[in-house]
Amino acid sequence: MSSDEAYANASVIYSNGPETFYSNIDVVNHSSSHVAVHNTSPRIVPYPRERPERPGETQSEYSEGVSRRPSIEENDDDLVEELRPTDQYGFYTEEVQTIPKKVNLDQLRRREKKWLHMMDNWAHFMDDEYDRVRDRCRKGIPPSLRARAWKLLSGASFQSEISMNRQVFDYCVRQPGDAKVIDEIERDLDRQFPQHELFARSGKYAEGGKEDLLNLLKAYTVLHPEEGYCQGQAPIASVLLMHMPIRDAFYVFVQICHKYLNGYYSPGLETVQLDGDILMQILKEKNKTCYSHFKRNGIDAPLFMIEWFMCLYCRTLPWPTVLRIWDMFLCEGIKVIFRVALVILQGTFGTNAQCKKYNDLSAILTRLRNLPSELVEEEALMKKAFTMVREIVITTEEEESKTNGVEKEHENGESIVEEPEEAIVTRMINGSKNAWNSIPSETKWFFYDFFLAMGALLILFGLTVAGRVVLEYTHQEEGPLCRFVHCIDGLLGTSLTESLCAVQLDIMERLVWHSKNLSNEIKDGIANFVDQISDGFSAFHTIIGSVLTYFAGLISDAFAELGGNVEENITFLKDFIASGLEWLSSNVSSFLSSFQEAAAPSN
Amino acid sequence: MDPSGAGTSNDEFKFKVVLLGEGAVGKSSLMLRYVQGQFNPRHISTIQASFLAKQLVVDGADIDLSIWDTAGQEKYHALGPIYYRGSHGALLVYDVTDAKSFDKVKMWVKELRRALGEDVVLFIVGNKVDLADSRTIETEMASQFAESVGATYEETSAKENIGVENLFELMCSAMVTRARAGPSNRGPSANGGRAGTTRRIRIVDEPSTGRKCC
User: Fold this and answer.
1) Which domain holds residue A501?
2) pLDDT tens digits along A304-332
3) Which of A158, A219, B132, B139 fits a disulfide with A172 by CB distance 3.0 to 4.6 angstroms?
4) Which of A398, A413, A439 marks a domain boundary?
5) Does A218 share its domain with A278?
6) Residue A552: closest CA among A541, A563, A540
7) Where residue A385 falls among pLDDT bands split at 50, 70, 90?
8) Which among A189, A365, A471 is the top mutation candidate for probing chain B, defined by the most B β-carbons within 10 Å of its own β-carbon?
9) How many domains, in total, are found in chain A?
10) Residue A225 lies in a domain
């Protein structure tokens, strides 16, 4: 067969269409493969370029009778939904889509390139240049690469592609699952992001979106029947499904449940409650004003943080902010969630003026559910999360045991007063315990009350720092006498800062309790004080008299040899403090020396 | 520290009411219907307990009512005490089309009686009565149960706005009656007004155990 013939064949074939081409090409190849090599004119591979050339264009002569016109009459609601405009994230918007805020395209493209390079060399970057990965996550992952990046960051890529767990999804999703659990999940399907087109009740993706959600959550409960389903999981799974197909979403979800929020969804919800306590402890360190305000008003962490932590803010913050938080969270872990919480709390209740404005439980919680928009705006919040909250120190045991807890960061070279003082105190405590045991209990109580009153007095006189030290240490667990030592430490200026807000509810509680044993005038004074003080410190100067009366009464009642006459004047009380301190220095010196003795050998 | 003077002017009360019950029975919807007059068929599932406040006048008393909505799922039961602590009343909601949700009410009754004592005003609420066709729990049975545990039974539909207003007014009325009847053992709450209910006074050292360092 000559080459001419082959060429002629080909052109015939082309004009006949691709099917004939593929059925004949074998023949041609078999019979003339050696010829074709030498053939100078290139053989034309068919690729029909007929309409519709672009997706969406119709070709009526073929599609007639195949394409189905949606019936407006029967699906009226659906159609309305379908036509509703959405924003760039897929949430229905009421107004016509405005042009999204200006995107710096050059910057975005640069970032995309960096990310592509990084993802192609993922192992290297994670092992040797993790800081760079982290910093890029903090800047935000380019939207086009977010899904892939999340998979890599969470380890889901490995799990779903390489690990032996890659079969798990296929297995789990085929299992029927526990009927009771399925029922629980089904109750929630209509209640996730109803404003998102993927999960709206109806509309173009609705059924598919919900079916995926059901399957994903079901597959997880098949994997962990002991945990079952938790309502907090559905929003997380939904966010993932908005970004990636179900199989990928499943593996990221599993990683989040296993590694990032381990124990959050297990029965009893202990871990999330524990994290609530930790949050309060950190808040105490970082923003005493806010902490005291919360304590005074009976605000515990579970009243506001459960949804923040369990749903990773996806129901709390504006969507762009949520995505940025997730970018960082999947890279750095739970500490990001803590940081954001601190920024929010600091931004809403960080100053006395804010606390005064929202001054009871209901006002506070309402405020936390209606966060100011300038605070939660993407860039502002991100910036704060990584500047203001620079160094977070965790101190309690539970916190130390958390693997990916908040880390200490000394990036500003700012050192934190800590260990040495701590060591001294511990030594003192040990020494004082023995001394303490030998004191009669009446005297013990004495110290306790006396120190409380002292602390309050110091604050009243403006010695806020010292007063707070006294109060704080008086409330510590080790017993009044060693508290005294701590107080001395504090008076010498070893630690602490901050504001007048430190007069705590505890003090008031004690006032009330003591008031039972006191005269009526003093009781009135206290009642007045408690009322006034809860209204805020503006009335402070008008009530100082009655407060001082109370303290004088309390102390003189209890400590007759010290008190002398109780007079309602400040001069006396100044003398009183002076004499109190004098007394302390003379009477307590014996105790002091005894625990100094006890303490000395250990050092 | 006497209860604020009855008779002359309006008494003032500050009440806390908590909504409890199985998931998806309509707790949030009841609250939203009552406080905001709205019904949203696309309400999201409740994960964070939240609350709304409303002022009203019942039986010549000014009432400052804070209504707490909680998460219904079994898992969140562990957090229950944090939210119902210090409540004057509780609405135990179930879905009249769902027998399981009624069992949950029974469980809540037990728990609340144990935790809050006889002082708490209990209402058992059958919600979704608009779905009469698929109803599984009959009025008779529910009200008998309510009576047997010293609770009041009411039926509502947050969707069709049936009985919601009435429910909360009855509740307030019952709480007012109880508050006036005698000083509650929770001290401040009987005092009405600003004494508030959510503020816990915890005496650091318990006087009864003698003076002993904490």
Assistant:
1) 457-515+532-586
2) 999 999 999 999 999 999 999 999 999 98
3) A219
4) A398
5) no
6) A563
7) confident
8) A365
9) 3
10) yes
Cα gap A452→A554, rounded to integer Å: 11
Among chain B residues, CA nearest to A447: B213
B107 touching A (Cβ < 8 Å): no
B181 touches chain A (CB under 8 A): no
Contact B49 A193 (CB under 8 A): no
Looking at the fold, whether A347 and A482 belong to one and the same domain comes out as no
A431, A596 Cβ separation under 8 angstroms? yes
Phi, psi of B126, deg, nearest 5 = -90, 110
Whether residues A297 and B199 touch (CB distance < 8 A) is answered with: yes
Whether ipTM > 0.95 holds is no
* pLDDT tens digits along A187-224: 999 899 988 888 886 666 667 888 999 999 999 999 99
Question: A74 versus A264: which is more confidently predicted?
Answer: A264
| pLDDT class of B91 with cuts at 50, 70, 90 | very high
Residue A549 one-letter amino acid: T
- Of A224, A296, A362, A475, which to mutate for an interface test with B (greatest number of B Cβ within 10 Å)? A362
Quick one: A504 and A572 in the same domain? yes
Domain CATH code at residue A235: 1.10.8.270
Q: Tell whether A85 is covered by a domain.
A: no
Q: How many CA atoms lie within 13 A of A553 on its CB side?
A: 21
Q: What is the CA radius of gyration of chain A?
A: 35
Distance CA(B172)–CA(A180), nearest Å, equals 37
Instruction: Check which CATH number belongs to the domain holding A292 and give it.
Output: 1.10.472.80
CA proximity to A77, closest of A206, A238, A242: A206
Contact by Cβ (8 Å): B34, B53: no
A501, A541: one domain: yes
pLDDT tens per residue, range A25-44:
444 444 444 444 444 555 66
Give the whole-angstrom CA distance, residue A546 versus residue A370: 39
Put simply, the answer to whether A307 touches B47 (Cβ < 8 Å) is yes
Using CB atoms and an 8 Å cut-off, which of residues 265-284 of chain A contact chain B?
265, 267-270, 273
User: Which one of A208, A238, A258 terminates a domain?
Assistant: A258
| Residues A461 and A541 grouped into a single domain | yes
Same structural domain for residues A142 and A178?
yes
Query: Domain for residue A482, yes or no?
Result: yes
